[in-house]
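Per your request, structure below.
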């Protein structure tokens, strides 16, 4: 007898049990079903929101084994495990170009919107969320409708995020990555390195989900290490 079709609710429950955050799901259009996605109809996104997901990582062997890219290795182990259990494909936001368009996908799965920093903003979690992977199903799963909520940036008149970076890395024309990395690696970069990006922290949305210093510092160290690695 064929395996029963999973429901999106059971998939989200499995993600939850694995300690990660379900981040909604969406259907691929016919023109998107090419290459590695040729047999895929539904994509369910998985991530970290606030501390949800981070705690599972912090308790994982990868967090303590001293090896490189611990969060990516943790994500692969857990999400590959879910994919195997469900008989589906796992996709990841990391691992080199060409990148899967997680930010674009996310806008179809949850009420997230582009912010002036380039990061997606969530009405509840603000800028404090990310994606760790996705499960790609051959089946067209029945999905709940995404609740449409406006972008918090539309009604944010002062836009404090744009003024908070000490080196003006957010110019309105993009993100000046070399300026940011030079600041982080220099003597004045301690505040961003220890507590997280000041521009991100200046956003009033989701302020209850600002990561504790250990989580923020981990992300900043990983970012700086990647910027300093030889090309
Ligand atoms: C390359 C990359 C970078 C580069 C360059 C980023 C840049 N702004 O140019 C570097 C290394 C500098 C970088 C830095 C950081 N990154 Co980065 N990065 C990526 C990565 C791996 C690929 C982006 C990409 O090129 N995608 C390919 C295109 C085709 O996909 P896309 O969805 O269409 O993405 C673009 C569109 O969404 C577009 N876009 C934005 N709005 C809209 C609206 C519409 C309608 C459309 C069509 C497109 C569009 O902007 C995206 C390009 O960045 C993504 C992961 C991923 N796979 O997406 C993470 C990602 C974007 N980064 C992320 C983060 C958190 C960071 C950092 C904060 C570092 C950190 N500590 O983790 C910093 C700061 C980022 C910043 N302020 O912009 C998160 C963002 C989470 C969020 N809330 O949005 C992602 C999604 C990774 C993840 N695992 O969740 N990053
Ligand atoms: S400070 Fe305002 S404009 Fe900037 S990300 Fe937050 S809500 Fe959006
Ligand atoms: S980490 Fe610091 S230097 Fe880099 S963009 Fe954010 S505020 Fe600016």
């Amino acid at each position: 007898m064929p395996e029963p079709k999973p429901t999106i609710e059971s998939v989200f429950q499995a993600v939850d049990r694995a300690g990660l955050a379900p981040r909604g799901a969406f259907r691929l259009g016919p023109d998107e079903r090419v290459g590695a996605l040729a047999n895929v109809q539904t994509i369910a996104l998985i991530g970290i929101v606030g501390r949800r997901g981070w705690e599972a990582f912090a308790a994982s062997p990868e967090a303590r084994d001293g090896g490189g890219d611990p969060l990516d290795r943790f994500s692969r182990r857990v999400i590959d495990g879910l994919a195997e259990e469900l008989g589906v494909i796992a996709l990841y936001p990391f691992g080199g170009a060409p990148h899967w368009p997680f930010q674009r996908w996310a806008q179809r799965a949850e009420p997230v919107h582009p912010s002036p920093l380039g990061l997606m903003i969530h009405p509840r979690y603000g800028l404090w969320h990310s994606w760790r992977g996705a499960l790609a199903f051959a089946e067209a799963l029945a999905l709940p409708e995404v609740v449409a909520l406006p972008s918090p940036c539309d009604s944010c008149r002062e836009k404090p995020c744009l003024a908070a970076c000490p080196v003006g890395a957010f110019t309105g024309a993009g993100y000046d990555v070399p300026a940011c990395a030079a600041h982080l690696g220099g003597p004045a970069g301690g505040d961003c390195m220890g507590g997280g990006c000041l521009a991100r922290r200046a956003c009033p949305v989701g302020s209850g989900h600002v990561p504790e210093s250990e989580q923020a510092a981990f992300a900043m160290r990983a970012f700086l290490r990647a910027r300093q690695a030889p090309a």
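The chain has two domains: 8-151, 156-228.

Regards,
D.
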